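Figure 3 (text version): structure tokens given as input.
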């Protein structure tokens, strides 16, 4: 189908609910149809509160053995659309994911009981994810090698 997206809020653009000006119409497709015949390891979902609808279109993807982790931002912006982020958390847990906070400077995953207010990484295969963190190439941020 199609959906209206705001176009004047820079990094805070979002699905338009009441806005009639400064919107663009974009095509939408279910993640399951986009990822057919692909095997993602990690998916990042950052859609300014519309995460519930994204997850509704990716039930097959959530069942893929290849999918080890999902990074998702649950910061209350789903309220704009009447979505409850607790339900997103429950859905991901029901698919076998556990919420973690990631500390990039020490490359550590810390288990959470609930999602955070920023990006939360939901991990299904902790051993695989920790292994990848250990062998990943280091890079510099502000002259610090991490």
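Below: residues designed for each position.
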């Amino acid at each position: 189908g199609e959906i209206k997206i705001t176009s004047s809020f820079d990094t805070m653009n979002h699905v338009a609910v009441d806005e009639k000006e400064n919107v663009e119409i974009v095509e939408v497709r279910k993640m399951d149809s986009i990822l057919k015949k692909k095997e993602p390891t990690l998916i990042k979902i950052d859609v300014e509160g519309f995460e519930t609808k994204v997850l509704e279109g990716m039930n097959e993807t959530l069942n893929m053995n290849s999918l080890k982790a999902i990074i998702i931002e649950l910061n209350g912006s789903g309220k704009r659309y009447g979505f409850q982020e607790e339900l997103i958390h429950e859905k991901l847990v029901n698919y076998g994911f556990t919420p973690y906070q990631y500390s990039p400077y020490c490359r550590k995953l810390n288990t959470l009981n609930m999602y955070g207010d920023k990006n939360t990484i939901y991990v299904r295969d902790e051993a695989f994810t920790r292994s990848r963190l250990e062998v990943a190439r280091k890079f510099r941020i502000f002259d610090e090698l991490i």
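The chain is about 25% helix and 25% strand.
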